[in-house]
Each structure stands twice: as C-alpha cells, then as structure tokens.
Design brief:
The complex is a heterodimer of chains A (about 650) and B (about 270). Chain A is an alpha/beta fold. Chain A is about 35% helix and about 15% strand. Chain A folds into three domains: about 210 residues, 3-Layer(aba) Sandwich (Rossmann fold), CATH 3.40.50; about 140 residues, Transcription Regulator spoIIAA (2-Layer Sandwich); about 220 residues, no CATH class. With about 270 residues, chain B is of the alpha+beta class. The longest helix of chain B is centred in the first third of the chain and has 15 residues. Classes of the chains: A alpha/beta (about 650), B alpha+beta (about 270).
Chain lengths: ~650, ~270
C-alpha cells in the first residue's frame, strides 16, 4: 500500500514555527528507501527535541544497522515542540518521520529509545499525533508495535500500558531478531494477529510484552507477584549484551544535522559497561561487563567518521574513558594523527585522576582545548565511601592542581545532593573542598585568576542499583542543603568569588524518582499529567512540578498510595520490586549486600583488577570482561 | 602559573575565492548559522585547503555577504573563502557541491585577484540590491495588482517587525526599487502548489540593501498595511539575484568584476 508523504501539508506550517530546519530531514547520512520494497519498516523515535535526539548514539546505530538490511527500512522521528504540535493538530497532520515525512502510524514498528524517564509524556504526544491509541490494548493490526528500549526500559512498568513491548540492553542484535520475527509473521499472513506476533516475540525471552504479565498487589499496596498469563512466556525477561564491539563499528555513516544540536561531534564509544561500582549509577550496573573496542578499531572509526561527516570534533565516549586499557596510546596516537588539522579531540567522561589531565593535555596538543570536569560526586570522605566513589581529597586536590598548573584556569566539579545516609555536614563539605581546590590552585600557580564551578545534581534512586531500596531524599531537605551549601561557599568572600555554583532545586528529581521506580499504577499519573499539558519534562522551562503533584493526587489515592510512597519510602529486602521480573543479570542478593555494605561505608573494588565479587552478570548472561591491551599502536594516517 | 599562549602556525591565505550558492526546496529552512556549520563541514569533507584564523579557537576564513532569511529560498547567496593552498575554483565548486546536501548547491566560484585586491570592493559592498520572487498561493493576481499599485503610490509604508530587541518600525517602501506582478509561467523549478488548481499570484521586486534591511516579509507586511492583503498560506520567497544595481534597476552579476581579471574563473 503506498504511503503518502505529509510534506506538502507540513511545508506551509513550517514558516510559522521556531527552528523549522529540525523537521526537514536531509541530513548527511540520512537514508530514504523505497517504501514498497521494504518487508519490515521501523520508525525510530528519540522522545525529545531534535537537537537532543539527533546526536543520540543508540538511535544512530540502530538506524544504520536496520537500513543495512536490504528489505528493511528505518526512519527517524523526534518530539515536536508545542508550537508545531498545535499546528499539526489544527491542520490534522500526523506525527511524521524526518527522513521521508511518512506518517509514523504507517510503520510496522515504532521503536522508542528512553535514555531518561522524562521522555514519557513525549511518547504520549507522539502516539496521539500519530493516531495510535495510547493504550496498547486498544491497538489493532493496523497500528505499529510500540517497542521501548534504552536505559529507562529496565523498568518500563510506569509506561507498560502504552507499550506493546520493551527490550533490555544492547539493541544491535535485538532489532535484527525482532525484524526477523516480524518479517516471518507478515510473510505467513500474520497468523493470530497482533497477539500472535507478540507471543512470538515474548517467547524469545528477551522481549518483554507487558500485557502477558499480571501484577498482583498486597493489601498495603506493595506488589505481591508478577506472573505470566500465557503459556511459554518466561517468568523473567533477560537483557541483551552485544559482545566483541570490534565487530560492530557503528556509527559508520554518522548523521550530520543541518540544525544546531547539543553535540556537534563524531562520537565513538571506546567501551561499553563499567565496573567501577558507583552505587548510584544505573548505567554502570546495567551495562556490565566491560567490553572494550580495540585501539585500532577506534582509530579506524575516527578516521572514517571524520571523513564521512566533516566534523571538527571527536568525542571518545564511555562511562569512564580513562579506564580503557589502551587509553594512553589511543590519545597520543590520535593526537599525532590530527595535529595541525584543526580537529579537536575530547574525553568527556573523566575520573578524578591526574592521569586524566595528562590525557586531556595530550589530546589538546593540536590547539583546541576542551573543558575539564571532575566528578567526586560526594563532599565528604564518608559519603564517598557510601556511594563507592573511591576518590580521596588528596587525589582531588592533586588532580585539580595538575589541571591548573597545566594551563587550565577553570575546572568543573560535579557533586550530588540527596544521597542515602547524607547529612547536612556531608553537603557542607562540598564547600570546604571547593575552597581547598581554590587555595591549592592559587598556591601552585601564584595566580588569583583560577576558578572552579561546583555543579550539583539531585540524586534519584534507580532500579537495578544497590540504592533501589533507598528512600529518596525529600525535596525540602535537598533544597535546604543546597541553600546551606551556597552560604558555606560564600563564608570566605575571596574564595567564594572564584567558585561558581550551579544547581537545580529538588522538586524535579522527585518526579523523576516517581517515574524511575514506579509500577504500572504510575501509568495513570503519566496519562493525567500529559492530558494536563505535560511535555518536554526534561526542560525546566516546560516542566511543572505542580502539574505532576496534582496528577499524582488525582490518581494515586484510589490505590491508597501517594507520591511519597513511591519516592521517599525506603523498601525492605522482601519487597517485590516492579522490575524484579526483568533480568539485568545482577543478582538481587548481591545488590542487597552492596546496599548493606554502603550503609556500613564499606567500599567495593573494580573486578577488572581485583577478583570477581559475584555481581552475577557474567555467568547469568553468559558474557565476560573483554579488555586489552592489544599491544597495537596507531600508525600515522596515509594521505589519500 | 604557565599562561597558555595561543598556538600559532596557521598557514597564511594564498588565494581568495568567491562562491555563489543556492538554498533550495526544503533546505530553504536552513538558517544562516545552520548553513555556516554545514558549509564548514563540507569544506573538510571536500578537502578544500581553507585557511584558519590564529588563536585558541581557530576559525576557517569564510566571510558571508548578506544571507537570505531563514525560510526564504535563494539562487544568489555569496561568500568568500581564504585558502592556504591554491585550488582551481571550478574543482572547488564541484567538490563543495558534492559534499553539501542536495538543496544546498554551489553554482559558481571565482578567484579574486590578490594583485588588485580592494579595487573591486568587498563582496558585501557590491551587494546593493536583491531581486526577489514571491509566490502567494491562494491569492488572486488581480488582488495582488491592486495591492502593489497602492504600495507604489505610497510615499512611505511603515511596517513593524519583531526582532530580538523588541518591536521595531521600518519603512518598507523606500528600499523597494521595483515591484510588479508577473504572470505565472510553468516553472519546473518551483514546487507544485499544495492547493492544486488554486490561484497563485507571483510578485517580483528589487529591494535595495539598506540598514535596517528590508526583507520580503517586510514587503508583504507593507502590502497588508496599504491594501489589507492577507495570504491564506505562508508565501514562498526566492532570491533570484543579488549584486550591484544599475540606474535602470537591473542587478549585475557581482562576480563579473573578478571574472574580468581572472580568466581562470569558471562561468555559469
């Protein structure tokens, strides 16, 4: 069936909206394939504005992996801003893809990548604009399957009602497998309709189909159990892990936008996973084990990526880039290759370690120097033991002083507020630390021009982490501590003037907490908030705390629950978590032990250089740590 | 503290090239900033030996001459490049065109004589006026003719524009050297009107480069002011030409002067 482009109807609306170029497509690396020649058609969505969504690695990788299959077509769609949303509604133009401006409702699958829970309301807008019923139960054979992925999909329960399926973990192989199942099912004449397809997907044990699971609750509101309601549907759904990243050198043809986006660079993941074991970090827990890309693959990807994109910046991404076993040779090899070419290289994710400053210096040999950010996360030695961020004050001072004496005049320090067991004093210590940094920096450089910025994020307990049982810190307490910290920084006026202070108030974190650890009953809150106008909840200018509080107050009392029950309440070991049937590989006994160790302020070392501590992932997922060094070096590029 | 010195050693400019390019179809929604970023990347992909400024954050040497507003198409945008190694302008134009998305099209490139630099004036100085073609789908040509007559008869047509600094008033009439309604001829270049069979009036005007600049939108606001013309759908403006303005009201190719001196420059 031919599908018409909505472009003729969209084009007259674009002069009326801000930044129309974001809806036009035509990026370098974009692909428009023949609709009728495709057996399976995916619309891939990043549920935020184009400027945030386009650089997303996950979407770019899957877009390329899928489009490499000859009979598969993948296009992209992003959340439209409220100005265009109003016009689309007024002119009855549906949610569209930017590649060929095809209506999203015409695709076989709508894959949505949730890096954060704050994109949930944008999913609802997109479904509604696409003419897809919000509730999966109301969809028919003519509607796409709505499939969630990304880190937030490790607890998709709050949006279970709106999803047909969710996939946990790495997507490269998962999307191909799903595509194969959909292809066969269509070729066979769609046996048993939509449910027939969903059953086939569910039986792979790596695709979660919420409607095939019933949730029972205890009288006090906690979950009693989550059980499959269909034969052959597994009790637990397992995450996917892509092994041997050298075999998956994506993106090969990066998307290069015309519109301005948040990251204008060729990004290459130098490894996936992290076993540093920071207890607050969901990414580090759910992406285990560590799998490195070799220095030679990284070198090749950077060379190809720059040639294909024309970008002038390269980002070497991972959860803790300096931990790569070949990072030294990689940085000096790349710096050699691109010296004098006006290409800048950056290592965005850095530990508190003087070695990092050396690496950053090596990378900036070519001229352009990027900013330096260090994340001690906690202000006191005590709280850093609680969160397992093994950084001593001495390390931090030495690192920052190295940065100042190497020519950086400004460093950023990142901390969290609202951590489990945190006291006012732990937060006050952040100010003391910042003062020490400036004092030591002034002493070492003899200059009063050095500065640092203290940036504070609110801690949100996340599923599949040792802190999943913790009570979230109430917003008032967070706000009180942030105010204390501000005062404390300015107790010394001379030092205070050299310290910038950036923070957000505690309320948005509480809503993020609701969405992170919520269960299916939170779905009605999301729907209500969306009906009341919630959109782009990750943007402070669009987020309304009051709207969410009102929605929660309208919905949750029906279950005898409230916002606090989902957020500030501490859970005990026996409580069934909404995501317990979703297997990230982490052994829940190990997670609980680690939570207890945290409260006793006992640290846990990294399994890359100490014996395995049995977190459960490798044996459970049949995976292993894949690290170098390979012993190879980057040779100079031969001019073409 | 060891103060950082800006890294030096950027190669000097050995050749200057002036480029004419077009912004067409959907890519007319590219803003000037968007174009500038895309163009810098295209330079790198195309392997054009562009020169860079000195300093901590070296920038490629590109200067733009009065870019068309976002949403307006153009057949006549211009920029000037400084090169650190010589390159044949025709080869440069072809390589850049291939490296840019279809819809951002390089039409011409001419080397500027360094010997007599300055004698022809800067590119921006040559841009005295632009010829615009504005399609108004859903507007009857007769209605547009009446509005144009009213506009021409007026001595001043003050219009308001919302800028970042707030609302400002400018005279749309004074900058307009020529304005007329043209008969729609079948044009393969123009996108088909979304309302098939509906009338589509076409306006052409020559607008002087003044400060503050008068854009096609301002001319349309002027037509609304004098005759209440309210197009039912947003009109589409295309810049057809840009350059020196003759006393007869014609626009001359701004690269003509450079072409005369440097026979290696490519023609259309």
């Amino acid at each position: 069936m031919p599908v018409e482009s909505v472009w003729p109807r969209l084009e007259p609306l674009l002069p009326q909206v801000s930044k129309p170029i974001q809806y036009v497509g035509g990026e370098l690396g974009a692909q428009v394939k023949d609709w009728d020649a495709a057996a399976v058609r995916w619309a891939l969505m990043y549920p935020d504005a184009y400027e945030v969504g386009l650089p997303n690695q996950g979407v770019q990788i899957l877009y390329e992996v899928l489009n490499e299959l000859p009979d598969v077509l993948a296009e992209r769609t992003y959340a439209v801003w409220p100005d265009l949303e109003a016009l689309l509604r007024a002119h009855q133009v549906p949610q569209f893809t930017v590649d060929a401006h095809r209506p999203v409702g015409a695709f076989d699958l709508l894959g949505v990548s949730f890096a954060t829970e704050l994109g949930y309301t944008n999913l609802l807008s997109a479904l509604d604009l696409a003419g897809i019923p919000l509730a999966a139960a109301d969809r028919t054979g003519e509607h796409p399957l709505v499939v969630a992925g990304g880190h937030a999909a490790f607890n998709p329960e709050p949006i279970a009602e709106f999803l047909d399926a969710a996939v946990l973990g790495d997507g490269e192989e998962a999307v191909r497998e799903i595509t194969g199942i959909v292809r066969d099912w269509k070729a066979q004449g769609r046996p048993d309709g939509r449910d027939g397809l969903l059953l086939r997907l569910a039986r792979t044990e790596s695709v979660y189909v919420p409607r095939f699971y019933d949730v029972d609750y205890l009288p006090d509101g906690r979950i009693q159990r989550v059980v499959p309601n269909q034969a052959d549907v597994p009790f637990r759904v397992h995450k996917r892990t892509t092994m041997d990243l050298d075999q998956w050198p994506y993106p090969k043809r990066p998307l290069v936008p015309l519109a301005e986006t948040v990251h204008e660079r060729y990004a290459v993941e130098i490894f996936r996973g992290c076993t540093r074991g920071c207890r607050f970090c969901q990414a580090g827990m759910i992406t285990r084990p560590v799998r490195e890309r070799s220095i030679t693959t990284v070198g090749q990807m950077v060379a190809n990526g720059l040639e294909a994109s024309g970008f002038s910046e390269v980002g070497l991404l991972s959860l803790s880039s300096a931990d790569h076993s070949e990072i030294g040779d990689m940085c000096s090899g790349l710096a050699d290759r691109y010296q004098g070419s006006n290409v800048s290289l950056s290592l965005p994710s850095t530990r508190v370690d003087a070695f990092n400053v050396e690496l950053a210096q090596e990378l900036s040999r070519g001229g352009r120097r990027t900013g330096l950010t260090f994340a001690p996360e906690g202000g006191s030695e005590r709280i850093r033991r609680v969160i397992n961020k093994m950084v001593s004050e001495e390390d931090l001072i030495r690192t920052v002083v190295t940065a100042y004496t190497s020519g950086w005049r400004h460093v950023k320090l990142y901390f969290m507020c609202g951590l489990p067991t945190e006291t006012d004093d732990d937060v006050r210590q952040i100010a003391r630390l910042a003062h020490e940094v400036i004092r030591a920096g002034r002493a070492a450089t003899g200059s009063r021009e050095i500065k640092c910025t203290v940036s504070i994020g609110g801690f949100v307990p996340k599923p599949h982490t040792p802190f999943q049982w913790a009570g979230q810190c109430p917003a008032e307490v967070v706000d009180h501590r942030l105010a204390l910290l501000k005062q404390e920084i300015n107790t010394d006026r001379s030092l205070g003037r050299a310290i910038g202070y950036r923070y957000h108030d505690g309320q948005p974190s509480l809503i993020e907490g609701l969405l992170s650890r919520g269960d299916r009953r939170v779905g009605a809150v999301i729907r209500r908030a969306w009906q009341d106008g919630a959109r782009f909840d990750g943007w402070s200018e669009h987020f309304s705390y009051q709207r969410w509080v009102t929605a929660a107050a309208q919905v949750l009392p029906e279950y005898g629950l409230d916002l606090d029950w989902f957020t500030t309440r501490e859970r005990d070991q026996t409580e069934v978590m909404p995501w317990d049937h979703l297997d990230s590989g982490l052994d829940s006994d190990w997670l609980w032990q680690d939570w207890q160790a945290s409260r006793s302020e006992v640290e846990q070392d990294d399994c890359r250089w100490t014996p395995c501590f049995d977190c459960g992932v490798c044996p459970g997922m049949d995976t292993e740590i894949q690290i170098g060094p390979t012993g190879r070096k980057l040779l100079p590029l031969t001019p073409v | 503290m060891s103060r950082r010195q800006p890294p030096g050693g950027q190669a000097p400019v050995v050749q200057r090239v002036r480029v004419r390019y077009a912004k067409r179809g959907p890519l007319r929604f590219t803003s000037h900033r968007d174009f500038a970023r895309a163009f810098e990347r295209a330079l790198r992909r195309a392997g054009v030996p562009v020169a860079y400024s000195q300093g901590f954050t070296p920038h490629p040497k590109i200067s733009y001459a009065s870019a068309a507003p976002t949403g307006a198409a153009s057949e006549a945008e211009y920029l000037e490049l400084g090169l650190q190694a010589p390159m044949d302008p025709a080869a440069l134009a072809a390589a850049l065109d291939a490296a840019l998305s279809p819809g951002l099209d390089v039409l011409d490139a001419v080397t500027v004589s360094t010997v007599v630099a300055g004698s022809g004036g800067s590119l921006a100085d040559r841009m005295e006026a632009s010829r615009w073609r504005i399609e108004l789908p859903g507007v009857e040509p007769a209605m547009l003719r009446r509005a144009v007559a009213g506009f021409e008869a007026a001595e001043r047509v003050p219009v308001q524009r919302l800028t970042k600094q707030g609302r400002r008033t400018l005279d749309a009439r004074a900058a307009v050297a020529q304005i007329r309604v043209v008969e729609p001829v079948p044009e393969p270049v123009a996108a088909p009107s979304e309302v098939t069979g509906a009338p589509c009036a076409i306006l052409e005007c020559v607008v002087r480069q003044v400060t503050p600049s008068v854009r096609p939108d301002d001319v349309l606001s002027g037509l609304r002011e004098v005759a209440g013309l309210e197009p039912p759908v947003p009109p589409k403006a295309t810049r057809l030409a840009q350059g020196p303005l003759t006393v007869q009201g014609e626009i001359v190719d701004p690269l003509e002067a450079d072409r005369g001196r440097m026979p290696t420059g490519s023609g259309d």
